[in-house]
Automatic annotation (TrEMBL):
GO terms for molecular function: structural constituent of ribosome. GO terms for cellular component: ribonucleoprotein complex; ribosome. Residues 77-97 have a biased composition (Acidic residues). InterPro entries: P1/P2_N_sf, Ribosomal_P1/P2, Ribosomal_P1_arc. GO terms for biological process: translational elongation. This is Large ribosomal subunit protein P1. Forms part of the ribosomal stalk, playing a central role in the interaction of the ribosome with GTP-bound translation factors. Keywords: Ribonucleoprotein, Ribosomal protein. Residues 70-106 are annotated as: Disordered. It comes from the Archaea. Gene3D superfamilies: 1.10.10.1410. Part of the 50S ribosomal subunit. Homodimer, it forms part of the ribosomal stalk which helps the ribosome interact with GTP-bound translation factors. Forms a heptameric L10(L12)2(L12)2(L12)2 complex, where L10 forms an elongated spine to which the L12 dimers bind in a sequential fashion. The gene is rpl12A. The keyword Ribonucleoprotein applies.
Amino acid sequence: MEYVYAALLLHAAGKEINEENLKKVLEAAGVSPDEARIKALVAALEGVNIDEVIEKAAMPVAAPVAVAAAPAPAEGGAEEAQEEEEEEEEEVSEEEALAGLGALFG
């Protein structure tokens, strides 16, 4: 995670995200840099618009609301259950889309 934070710090500072700069940031933070991980991160970020990725990742994801032992309504219960399932499916697809970002950062 430190490698991603270092890249984000460099981006926020307007510095180029390259192997040398990442190594300097990591060393300044007291982390022993791993050359292979640095190279992999730089290669993964090549051509990526970091601002766009941050914007997409910052989208609020609604947390499922837990209902504690609520009695089932006599009418319309099936409709409500179906709507809840649809909402959960939408949340899962958003989470899956954002999970792909994790592969970029190791």
